[in-house]
Structure formats: C-alpha cells, structure tokens
Amino acid sequence: MDEQVANPVDFSRSSIPRYIQLATLFRRRIETGVWPVGDQIPTVDDLAVQSGVARATIRQALDVLESEHLIERFRAKGTFVRRRPHDDLWCAVETDWAGLLRANHDAKIEILGARKNVVIDEVPYPLGTMAPAYRRLRRRHWRKSEPFLLTSLLIDERLMDRISKRDIEAKTALRLINDVPRLKIADARQTLTIGAADVDTATSLMMPLNAPVAFVHRRVVDSDGTLVLAAEGIYRGDVVRFDVKLR
After folding, report:
1. ∠ CA 176-195-83 to the nearest 5 degrees?
2. Residue 228 reports pLDDT greater than 90
3. Is 183 helix (H, G, I), strand (E, B) or coil?
4. Residue 163 lies in a domain
5. Which uninterrupted H or E stretch holds 150?
6. 3-state SS class at 114
7. 207: domain range?
C-alpha cells in the first residue's frame, strides 16, 4: 500500500471539490517522484480505499492528470506515469539586481492591456512617494508555448516618453525601468508571497484552479524618492524556482 495515502484524506479543510484536491495530491506524488516516471500507479480501487472516496471521484482526479499528459491509461494493463509536471520548464527568479536584469531569451511577452494616467493612492508593500499618475500595463509571459507569468506594471507616466513600444513588448519590468535614460535608481525591493490560483489566474496561466502560485512584488524608487515602478508578478508554482545565494 502507498504509505503516502495510508489514511483517508480529510476533505473537510477545503470547499474545493474532492477530485481537484486529489488531483493536486496525485500531481505532487508524480512531481516528487513518489510515483516515478514509467511506473504503474495504484489501481482505482486501491486509491479509492486509501483516500476514502468513491471510485468515480478517483477517476475524475485521474482524468485531470491525463488531460495534463502526466499519466497514460492502458486497458487491461493499468495506469502509468508518463512524465513529471513541467520537469523541463523552469523559470529561475534571481534575488539580486544584476540577476533580475538578465534577459530570458526564450521567453515571449504578450501585452494584455494598457491604461494611461492612472492615479494610484497606494500599492502593496509601499516604498517611496507616489507619482502623480502611472501607466498601467498587463502582460503575460510565455516560454515553450506555455504561459508561466502574469504581470501588472505601474510605471511613472512621466517616464513613458523615454520607453519605446518595442521595449514594452520585449523587456522585463526591471529591465524596462533600469534602461530609462537619465533615470537614477536609489532603491529597489522585492517581496515574495505564496498563494493559490483564482479562476482568472488559472485560466490565464492554463493551470488548475487553486494550484500554487508565487506572488512577487517589485518596487523601484528614483533619486527623488518617487516610486517609479510597482510591479506584481504571478508565477506558476510548478515552473518557477527562486535561487538565493547565501554566501
């Protein structure tokens, strides 16, 4: 018996449908190698007993994994792990300024929306003083034909005449602000939190509802103490890693 699910799952902790909770649990098994690639997973009957649910619920959970091409079912043979979740699709997020400015050459940026002269009173994790107005940009980042990052940018509107449309379509948020002519950066901060994908995020990033995501907030202040950039990035939890140099 699989020791990871020897006891029935407690579904009462969440209002999320049981099959989605189980799909998340099973996906994690594949990701961590508890269910190795190429191996046969327990039968529907075994999983139903171990998880304390109906066989139909297990089938629904496995349907999710099959739709993600993580497992493959064979009549009279069983169900086998086909691949790990995005084991070759990593987005490394650096934690120092130089690393964050490095270009990701195989990533593509899609512009989802733009608004001029947006007045903002406050941003999450405030830093510096607010500019009179901002340009709000919404973008989606792709790699290997899959979306991995949603971003919402607030850029001091007074800087926009120094930022080209081509740059907006090609540069990361920090690279955009770093390359603005004559702009002197005095301070920059990055804050990371962990959460779950809501309906809009799950749809935009083509991921399961309530799957883990990383929220990264970046703020940049100029030499006058003005917040010239406030950016929020929502990264897919299954494709991102944060590398921190300790020494």
Report:
1. 90
2. yes
3. coil
4. yes
5. strand 146-156
6. strand
7. 91-242
Cα 233 to Cα 20, 179, 237: the distances in Å are 25, 20, 12
Query: Which helix (H) or strand (E) covers residue 72, if one does?
Result: strand 71-74
CA-CA distances (angstroms) from residue 128 to 112, 113, 122, 235?
28, 26, 10, 25
pTM value is 0.70
Residue 208 in domain: yes
Kind and range of the H or E run holding 168: helix 165-168
Residue 125 CA to residue 35 CA, distance in Å, equals: 40
Co-location of 71 and 126 in the same domain: no
| Total count of domains within the chain | 2
Choosing from 62, 81, 100, the residue where a domain stops is 81
Confidence (pLDDT) at 69: 86
pLDDT class for 3, splitting at 50, 70, 90? Answer: very low
- Tell me which amino acid residue 75 is: R
Decide which of 21, 54, 81 is a domain's last residue. 81
